[in-house]
Amino acid sequence: MSTSTPRHIALAGNPNCGKTSLFNQLTGSRQKVGNYAGVTVERKVGFFTTPQNTTIRVLDLPGAYSLSSTSPDEDITRDICLGHHPAEAQPEILIGVVSASNLRLHLRFLLELKQIGVPVIVALNMMDEAEKMGLTIDINGLSAALDMPVIPVVSLHKQGVSQLLTVLDQPVQTPTPLPEDTDLHTEVRRLLSHYVQQPATPHERFTDRLDRWTLHPVLGPLILLIILFIMFQTVFAWAQPIMDALGSGLNDLGAWLLTPLPDGMLHSLLADGVIAGAGTVVVFLPQILILFLWIITLEESGYLPRAAFLLDRIMAMAGLSGRSFIPLLSSFACAIPGIMAARTIQNPRDRLVTILIAPLMTCSARLPVYTLLIGAFVPHRSVWGIINLQGLVLFGLYAAAIISGIIAARIMTRGVASQEHPLLLELPPYRRPLLRSVALGLWQRAVMFLSRVGTIIVSLNVLLWGLSSFPAPPAHAMGAAIDYSIAGRIGHLMQPVFAPLGFNWQICVALIPGLAAREVAISSLATVYAIGATGDDAGDKLLPILSSQWSMATAFALLAWYVYAPQCISTLAVMRRETRSLKIVLGAAAYLFGLAYLGAFLTHYITLKML
Amino acid sequence: MYTLATLPKGHEAIINRVSHLTGNDAIALRLGELGFVTGELVHVIATGPFGHDPIAVRLGTSRFALRRSEAARIHLQDTK
Questions:
Q1: How far apart are CA A584 and CA A579, in angstroms?
Q2: Pfam families per the record (chain B) (predicted)?
């Protein structure tokens, strides 16, 4: 019997048992989110104080169905519970969180926790749902039979949490384990029949009624389509104005801050390197936050697994499961939130493949480049009377990207596809998302993006600025300043490599600063052609120059290049952050550059032959 | 005897047994841990919009989505 004061505890339980809302309720904002060393499993640790002023460190373990794990999440839970984890000590007390409305499933895992040999306190969560279902639970009887304290809680409110804190101030005994050969299902059935009373005629649950609509073979996809439609409307209608305002606000702020500085190197470093880099980072935020507002709300409400159910068959064509759909769809707005959203995919292989093909989904930053080149080279006329040729080309670019993504995913999943790859997805009851959890989730995403990804983006932006600014052109130089810089020289050196694609040296030079963000390519082309245009009118001024100086084959090859090329260091930075592996990032960059080169080469060759 | 893969939508049946396709069939083991064990009642609540795959099944107070290939491991008998 242990009597010492516990300091280090962990919450363990099935997915959808309300563990995280209990964690939020216990710790409030005193929590930190990170990753377990070496894996991409989210690690949540928090602190709280008991009535007797003991500070307790609590770990929110990943949800698990069993200690015989089938995923990296469950590996972590098993290793920590059993005290096998290299970096985390075995918790002094486990809080086994079970949902009172789904005891049949959750008690089984609780019995596994009982067998470990550490003290366990049972948090009997979602008592309100159980009441609505008409269940009567003999809590004292259940507690005696389990040989563990059972505390009823509704983790959405403070209810029960204070009682849990009081119990933590008292010594908790280690439960006597069940005999080794006990069949856990039989034991669960015995407990349920003794201590849980079901109503004679169970009333149909809200979830079952809603599922008749949302899982319906015709209405289900229609509802999903409407939700996705509204989602993307808000992303573009709400995020775009905020992004534009943030962008210009940051420009003004930069200009104002830098007024006292004389024109020169330092001014340029701060304006074009640091502030422009920070601008790139901040401008992504509205889109990320609005997309995540949707994704977190859909996840918390229980709808996301239903969407995965509806789309599983389609995603299976790419060797993936329905879970990959939302991250990939988000990537059409921007690959960064898409890659971050891949966290909702439990299967590690699916998650990696989704992250790797996310950059192939045509993000909105490619549109300015597409618009400029299509406007300059594709005649504005219609085919067969009704189809706009420019629109057709744009559609073709999107289609090429999607088809390539499917093929790439198929190739990447081929070796492991022989091994059956299960869906086995729980469809949890629908629940009203909590404002508090959604806000906390958004806050964590924003902090993660700004601190981890932001620093990489700003440093690389400063590096690119250095490459494009040094050495400075001689005093009476003709042509663009960038042409004399290291970036200019690299561009010239690259030219023979890119000649088979029809790229001239101007394109090669513009590609380097264009790495900062895809849309920067236009202003850097403007810089190279020394037309001194900035911002919005760059495209308009470039259009006549490009259409007179480039061949159609070159323009089409550049379009093909943009379909594939990882021309966005922010995407690579977030990939690095999410996979924690430089090898994967380099591999992704190599395969995308390879595809881009091949695509541009074929496009150039075919266009030359056809014209 | 029939399997969950062939149970029509809206119908229910009792699990007779869960078969393991290989000696160490991870999917069958996981099905067991999720509560697909002999004697439990299963009810098909929905089938996927494309090719009626996957299926959504109610098992006690839980609901699961599984592909037909996974459901084929679950052998059923009629409710009495």
A1: 7
A2: FeoA
Token digits for A347? Answer: 């299967």
Q: How close is the nearest chain A Cα to the Cα of B38, in Å?
A: 10
Is some CB atom of chain B closer than 8 A to the CB atom of A67? no
Q: Point out the residue among A66, A103, A427 whose CB comes nearest to the CB of B56.
A: A427
Q: Is the pLDDT of residue A247 over 90?
A: no
Number of Cβ atoms within 10 Å of the Cβ of A50: 18
CATH assignment at residue A117: 3.40.50.300
Res A418: pLDDT: 47
Q: Does the beta-carbon distance from A423 to B29 stay under 8 Å?
A: no
Rounded Cα gap, residues A594 and A588, in angstroms: 10
CATH of the domain at B25: 2.30.30.90
Tell me, yes or no, whether A194 lies in a domain. Answer: yes
Reported as a single tens digit per residue, the pLDDT across A214-230 is: 999 999 999 999 998 88
Do the beta carbons of residue B70 and residue B27 sit within 8 Å? Answer: yes
Non-local (6+) Cβ contacts of A221 within 8 A are A310, B49
Residues of chain A neighbouring B58 (CB-CB closer than 8 A):
208
Contact A305 B48 (CB under 8 A): no
Structure confidence by residue, pLDDT tens digits, A416-462 = 544 567 788 899 999 988 888 899 888 988 887 787 677 777 777 77
Query: By the CB < 8 Å criterion, does B41 face chain A?
Result: no
Q: How far apart are CA A281 and CA A37, in angstroms?
A: 26
Please name the residues between 107 and 166 in chain A that touch chain B, using a CB distance below 8 Å.
108, 133
- Shortest distance between the Cα of A122 and any Cα of chain B, in A, equals 20
Residue A83 structural domain: 8-203
Cβ neighbours of A218 in B, within 8 Å? 49
A557 near A501, Cβ under 8 Å? yes
Q: Which residue of A has its CA nearest to B66?
A: A424
pLDDT at A404: 92
Separation of alpha carbons A153 and A122, rounded Å = 10
* DSSP state at residue B6: G
The count of domains in chain A is 1
Looking at chain A from residue 432 to 491, which residues have their Cβ under 8 Å from any Cβ of chain B?
none
In-domain check, residue A20:
yes
Nearest-CA distance from A21 to chain B in Å?
20
Contact B65/A312, CB-based, under 8 Å? yes
- Nearest C-alpha neighbor of A194 from the set A150, A148, A136: A136
**pLDDT, tens digit, 9 for 90 and up, residues A146-157:** 999 999 988 767
Alpha-carbon distance of A577 to A572, in angstroms, equals 9
Range of the domain at B35: 2-77
* CA–CA distance, A272 with A269 (Å, rounded to integer): 6
Cβ separation B65–A216 shorter than 8 A:
no
pLDDT at A533 over 60: no
- The answer to whether residue A151 is domain-embedded is yes
- Tell me if chain A has a CB within 8 Å of the CB of B47: yes
- What percent of chain A has a predicted confidence (pLDDT) above 70? 92
Query: Looking at the 3D structure of chain B, how many domains does it have?
Result: 1
pLDDT for the residue A465: 78
Q: Which residue of chain A is at minimal alpha-carbon distance from B35?
A: A105
Mean pLDDT of A264-273: 76
